[in-house]
Design a protein that fits this description.
mainly alpha, Growth Hormone, Chain: A, 17 helices, globular
């Protein structure tokens, strides 16, 4: 029993597990980075509409996560507790992703209704698949060091997904939509999401067939929901990393979406050579520059994730998380001082930030699984899916406020997107007012940086050190060994 729980997970199983987050991030990264500009400039929603739609939808979605966690913890099948949700949820998830990025020819009111229904449906299906997927990391091994490695593999998958999205969604909608200028079109977005959805379905099935659930609740454990929730709110380390995640994801939501507006309306680098070497013939287009920025950033983040296990060995999980998060916040704030023509500095600052955010993401979920172990150690009860689902609650609540803040701030600063006048669609203007451009700059710098630093403040006193986790791991293994005795 002990060797099964603690044995090193094979590379094949780690890669298979990472495929699940690669799949989810083909959607998640598209939602974060391109959904606001898709809705305002392609679909035709007002920025003010995004405020309430994102806020209401994501709060509703966040509430679903703990419910899904409690359901998954109580699931018993021949495939385990969590894996069957990948098997049966993959295809509906993919289909709804396509419908979400489909633009119907409706009146404005019906368009809002269509967007609200499809967006809520795809996020519910994301919960159905992603809560059990996140829970898998807590039951594939009881070895806390191997979980850090597993989390690193997972986040290599995350940022490979990001790399694919940043390439595909900045390039394919114009090509596949038939627009001669290579600009994004409604048809192009639909076809692009169809391709990404098919890939995601295949990847989720790979995870289902390769991952194995090894860590199980203590024998005879009963699962009263009220006690699960009481255990959760008494878990101080989980509350700390949860609130840090909340602030971190407000940052992620604002900054990820702001980049698209930042390069479209603020950066002015048409004739500037990137690092005095790279400049396309005819100069940079905003889409081409954004694509280069996103892809290069994703590569640096992958390098940061790969380096995580070495960095965490030196600094420990907690300091790796909040220290590198602080670097991400400081570099984000620096964007306020960069001029539109400072192309090289814009990229250099992004390289530093993206590398720093790699270990942050990997550590975050490894620490959540540590909190599940801590809960079992303190209470004698294990509720892995509830713990991970409630963690997603913090994540999605942060995304909800961050996404709503984008629409609110754009509206306050007078941003003008695609509009319809007397039944005629008027595209978003090529330039925005000086006030709107300043709002876009603030969205890409000061506003998200504030929330990063709040997350850092929460985590400075995090109590689960490397030494403490080794003590917990040893005690839990001894208990499980005792349970196996006749």
């Amino acid at each position: 029993m002990e060797s099964e729980l603690q044995k090193k997970i094979s590379i094949g199983e780690k890669v298979g597990f990472a495929c699940g987050d690669l799949a989810s991030n083909l959607f998640f990264q598209t939602f974060m980075t391109f959904m606001p500009i898709f809705y305002t400039d392609i679909f035709g929603l007002k920025a003010s509409t995004l405020i309430w739609m994102f806020l209401v939808s994501k709060i509703f979605d966040a509430v679903n996560d703990p419910i899904m966690g409690m359901v998954a913890d109580r699931t018993e099948t021949r495939w385990g507790k969590y894996r069957p949700y990948l098997l049966f949820g993959a295809i509906p998830f993919g289909i709804m992703g396509i419908l979400t990025f489909t633009t119907p020819h409706f009146s404005y009111g019906y368009k809002v209704l269509y967007a609200f229904i499809t967006y809520n449906a795809v996020m519910m299906l994301y919960t159905l698949v992603n809560v059990p997927y996140c829970s898998l990391m807590g039951v594939m091994t009881s070895n806390t060091a191997d979980r850090t490695v597993l989390s690193s593999y997972r986040f290599v998958g995350v940022f490979i997904g990001q790399l694919i999205v940043m390439t595909a969604v900045t390039l394919l909608p114009g090509i596949l939509g038939g627009d001669v200028d290579g600009k994004a079109t409604a048809k192009g977005f639909q076809i692009t999401m169809t391709i990404l959805s098919v890939i995601a379905i295949v990847l989720l099935y790979i995870t289902f067939f390769t991952a194995k659930e090894r860590v199980h609740p203590p024998k005879g454990q009963r699962n009263p929901m009220r006690q699960d929730l009481v255990d959760l709110i008494r878990n101080v380390p989980w509350l700390m990393i949860g609130f840090a995640t909340f602030f971190q994801l407000i940052f992620v939501a604002i900054q990820s979406s702001a980049r698209t507006y930042y390069f479209k309306y603020y950066v002015n680098a048409g004739d500037v050579s990137l690092f005095y070497i790279f400049k396309p013939e005819g100069g940079w287009s905003s889409d081409g520059l954004l694509r280069t920025y996103l892809i290069s950033g994703a590569i640096l983040t992958i390098i940061g994730v790969i380096a995580t296990k070495y960095i965490s060995r030196i600094f420990g999980k907690a300091f790796t998380y909040w220290g590198f998060l602080a670097i991400g916040g400081i570099t984000t704030a620096l964007y306020y001082y960069l001029k539109p023509e400072n192309l090289n500095l814009i990229f250099i600052v992004n390289f530093i930030r993206c590398f720093a955010l790699g270990p942050v993401s990997a550590m975050q979920w490894a620490m959540f699984t540590d909190c599940a172990d801590y809960n079992e150690w303190k209470t004698g009860r294990r509720s892995t899916a509830l713990m991970m689902a409630a963690s997603l609650f913090f994540l999605k609540f942060g995304l909800a406020l961050g996404a709503a803040a984008i629409g609110w701030i754009l509206d306050v600063y007078g941003y003008i997107g695609k509009t319809v006048v007397d039944g005629v669609e008027i595209p978003a203007p090529a330039t925005q007012s000086a006030e709107a451009v300043h709002g876009i700059l603030m969205l890409n710098s000061i506003y998200p940086a504030i929330f990063v630093l709040l997350g850092v403040a929460v985590m400075i006193a995090y109590p689960l050190s490397t030494k403490k986790m080794l003590e917990i791991e040893t005690d839990l293994l001894a208990r499980r060994k005792q349970e196996e005795k006749p």
